[in-house]
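Quick one, tokens below:
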């Protein structure tokens, strides 16, 4: 496609939001300030109970911004609704508390030479609503790769990062891969982007595109994670592993799958015993994991003598007492 035609392609930015009144204005501004201006922003207000709706309606008067209000249905459902209302040839799912650099869409759209390619980006974290704390978080997948190569590089240390705003996706790929799984909540992005990336022919890396990932206001995988969220994370990781192995079944992909489940098991044990047993079975079926539980000091001594499970239980007990 000729460069002048690329400049005329509409990009649809799909943004779910729920009670992000403190952050959504900045997220929208990061879209408004894009150097590439042929975009539409579809915001689905997922039943917010704070001032999110008021901020959108009063602070932004731009015909390219559309607000859809629904009862609380979850982020996946909100993204699917935004997508169904989109008109663009290219899609970006952007969370309402993250930011993108002004050149992101222009840099990514310039690389859309093939409708079977997904465009990725750099990303980093910032804390306490302070952009001066931002630091890039380089990954092995920050290069142009085949889909399987991208996933394998992303999962290398069992810490895959697939926050939605990183990617620019041709609508043709989404039509092949399908929509977000509305039965998932925690780690729904891992399942969605594993499936979507594997539906592409290549992942093109854009060095001039950056996502600013807001940290400090999201929940973490811990003993406080609800059972339904823990099950969602498990199903997401298991499905993602199955997608990868279906695309390329070898010792490397099976080990990556086992390691991702093992790291998750470390995060939720000893809560949800039946779920932990199911995860252990899947890890064994994949051929076993090489990811070790991180320990130091007294916990390291206990782990070496009695195993990581007892060490983790004692660690949690000491935290409660403290």
């Amino acid at each position: 496609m000729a460069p002048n035609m690329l400049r005329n392609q509409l990009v649809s930015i799909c943004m779910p939001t729920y009670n992000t009144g403190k952050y959504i204005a900045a997220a929208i501004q990061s879209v408004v300030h894009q150097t590439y201006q042929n975009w539409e922003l579809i915001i689905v207000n997922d039943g917010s109970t704070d001032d999110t709706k008021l901020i959108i309606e009063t602070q932004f008067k731009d015909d390219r911004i559309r607000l859809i209000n629904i009862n609380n249905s979850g982020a996946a459902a909100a993204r699917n609704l935004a997508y169904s209302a989109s008109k663009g040839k290219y899609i970006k799912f952007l969370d309402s508390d993250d930011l993108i650099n002004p050149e992101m869409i222009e840099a990514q759209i310039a690389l859309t030479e093939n409708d079977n390619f997904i465009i990725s980006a750099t990303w980093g974290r910032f804390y306490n609503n302070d952009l001066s704390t931002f630091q890039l978080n380089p990954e092995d997948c920050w290069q142009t790769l085949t889909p399987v190569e991208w996933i394998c590089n992303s999962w290398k240390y069992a810490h895959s990062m697939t926050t939605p705003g990183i990617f620019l996706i041709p609508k043709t790929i989404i039509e092949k891969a399908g929509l977000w799984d509305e039965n998932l909540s925690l780690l729904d992005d891992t399942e969605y982007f594993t499936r979507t990336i594997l539906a592409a022919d290549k992942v093109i890396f854009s060095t001039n595109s950056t996502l600013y990932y807001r940290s400090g206001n999201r929940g973490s995988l811990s003993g406080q994670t609800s059972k339904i969220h823990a099950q969602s994370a498990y199903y997401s990781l298991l499905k993602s592993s199955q997608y990868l192995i279906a695309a390329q079944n070898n010792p490397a992909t099976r080990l990556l799958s086992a390691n991702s489940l093992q790291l998750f098991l470390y995060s939720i044990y000893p809560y949800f015993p039946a779920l932990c047993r199911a995860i252990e079975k899947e890890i064994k079926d994949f051929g076993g994991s090489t990811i070790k539980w991180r320990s130091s000091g007294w916990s390291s001594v206990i782990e070496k003598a009695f195993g990581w499970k007892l060490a983790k239980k004692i660690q949690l007990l000491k935290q409660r007492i403290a």
